[in-house]
Each structure stands twice: as structure tokens, then as C-alpha cells.
């Protein structure tokens, strides 16, 4: 599938898929969205020294890289698992400007190591950050009580509605430990209902810039 690099409104890049008319991140700002949805509304709630995160849609590696940078500040140890059915080609990754936009040039090699690292094995990217990339469909996830936090960053409902069903969120519920959290940029009535059917307690939050609302779900 053809991929085009686009510039979002906060100056950070994203990928556009013309065939699906879908972008990997918000056109209002890729970095802004990642920080607001996954860090501010998710990771910042966890004070544990060791945190396990499951990302649905590893994609460009932006969420993983920002999480690594946040872990440096908080001195947290992160076990990060990124699920991706269609890995992004390395030549595309090299055109993304996240390292410079995040003023993290000293970690340029680490960002590329995240993408070059082997799939299906646990890679120790740094002292406090391990990364396991799984080339896997969301429908095939079978984890049980392994993760404190899920970044649910699948393509939008209009493109892949089947990924926003109660069957999928039941898998997410199962994958979380008790008191685990799921955050996503999306906020649709049907998605909230699917989360509730899966057993989650759900709340609406203000969305990232350019979006009115987002959802956060808890496994009580």
C-alpha cells in the first residue's frame, strides 16, 4: 500500500495512506496527540517503578519513543510491547522528524534501533526500556493479565470498524492486570458501548488539539 509523508499542524510528520484516506496520526499534530492521549491521559497516572505497556498499532514508533523519553524523566522501567500487522518500511521511518521535533537528537540512534530491532523477541533498547515488536493482527492477541496500560492506536472506526468491537475490547480487558488502564484517541458512542460490554469502566476526557473528546477505560 502506498505511503506518503505529510506534515501535521504541530510541525511533526505522519504517514498518509491515499488508498484508505487515512493518516497514522492526527493532522492537527502527531506529537501533540501522542503526548496528550497516551502520556498525559495514560502513563502519567502510573507511579509504579516498573510498567508494562501494550501498544495496538506500533506504526511509526512515535508512541514508543515518546514513552522512552518520559521514562527517562520519571526513572520508570518500561516493558513495551508493540503489535503491528503491517510494519512500516525502514526507508519511510528515516523520513520522519520525531527526533528533531522532540529535541532528542542524542537519542537518534535509539529511535532507529527501535525499528531495526528484531521482531518477536524482547530487545533491551536501554537500561530502562525493553521493546518487543509483534507482527500480529489485533484479532489474534491472547495475552492475559500482562499489562498495566494499553495504548489503543488502531486505524479509525471509519476505516476498520471491526477493530473497535466489543470482541476486541474483551481481548484488551483480558490483557490488562486488575486496575489496568486503556487510552485511545477515539470517542464514539458505539466505541464506548463496546468498551462497556467488555467490562470496562469508561470515561470521556478532553481530546488532543483539534479533537473534542477521547476515551479512557479502567479494568476495576
Would you write up a description of this structure?
- The chain is α/β, with parallel strands linked by helices.
- It has one domain: Rossmann fold (3-Layer(aba) Sandwich), CATH 3.40.50.150.
- Helix content is 27%, strand content 29%.
- The protein is built from seven helices and eleven strands.
- A hairpin with a 2-residue loop joins strand 6 and strand 7.
- It is globular and about 40 Å long.
Secondary structure: elements and pairs:
Layout: E1 4-7, E2 13-17, E3 22-23, H1 30-40, E4 50-56, H2 62-74, E5 77-83, H3 90-93, H4 98-101, H5 108-116, E6 122-126, E7 129-134, E8 147-152, H6 166-175, E9 176-184, H7 189-197, E10 201-206, E11 213-218
Parallel strand pairs: 4-5, 4-8, 5-7, 8-9
Antiparallel strand pairs: 1-2, 2-3, 6-7, 9-11, 10-11
Helix pairs in contact: 1-2, 6-7
> What is the CA-atom radius of gyration, in angstroms?
16 Å
Instruction: Estimate nothing, just give the exact number of structural domains.
Output: 1
Let me know the average pLDDT: 97
CATH fold-type name: Rossmann fold
Class of secondary structure makeup: alpha/beta
Large-scale geometry = globular
Strand order of the largest sheet: 6-7-5-4-8-9-11-10
CATH superfamily, by name, is Vaccinia Virus protein VP39
- Strand percentage lies at 25-35%
Q: Name the helicity range.
A: 25-40%
What's the total count of β strands?
11
What is the CATH level 1 assignment? Alpha Beta
Low-confidence stretches: none
> Can you summarize the main beta sheet?
8 strands, mixed
Helix count from the secondary structure assignment: 7
Q: What distance separates the N and C termini?
A: 40 Å
Amino acid at each position: 500500500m502506498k505511503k506518503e509523508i505529510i506534515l501535521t499542524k504541530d510541525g511533526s510528520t505522519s504517514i498518509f495512506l491515499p488508498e484508505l484516506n487515512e493518516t497514522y496520526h492526527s493532522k492537527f499534530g502527531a506529537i501533540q496527540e501522542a503526548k496528550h492521549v497516551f502520556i498525559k491521559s495514560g502513563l502519567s497516572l502510573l507511579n509504579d517503578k516498573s510498567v508494562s505497556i501494550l501498544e495496538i498499532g506500533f506504526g511509526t514508533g512515535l508512541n514508543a519513543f515518546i514513552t522512552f523519553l518520559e521514562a527517562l524523566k520519571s526513572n520508570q522501567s518500561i516493558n513495551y510491547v508493540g503489535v503491528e500487522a503491517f510494519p512500516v518500511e525502514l526507508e519511510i521511518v528515516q523520513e520522519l522528524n520525531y527526533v528533531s521535533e522532540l529535541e532528542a537528537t542524542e537519542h537518534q540512534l535509539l529511535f532507529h534501533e527501535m525499528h531495526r530491532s528484531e521482531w518477536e523477541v524482547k530487545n533491551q533498547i536501554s537500561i530502562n526500556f525493553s521493546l518487543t515488536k509483534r507482527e500480529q493482527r489485533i484479532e489474534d492477541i491472547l495475552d492475559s493479565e500482562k499489562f498495566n496500560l494499553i495504548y489503543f492506536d488502531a486505524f479509525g472506526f471509519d476505516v476498520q470498524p471491526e477493530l473497535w468491537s466489543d470482541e476486541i475490547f474483551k481481548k484488551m480487558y483480558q490483557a490488562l492486570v486488575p486496575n489496568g488502564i486503556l487510552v485511545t484517541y477515539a470517542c464514539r458512542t458505539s466505541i464506548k458501548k463496546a468498551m462497556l460490554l467488555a467490562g470496562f469502566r469508561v470515561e470521556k476526557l478532553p481530546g488532543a488539539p483539534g479533537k473534542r473528546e477521547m476515551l479512557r477505560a479502567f479494568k476495576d
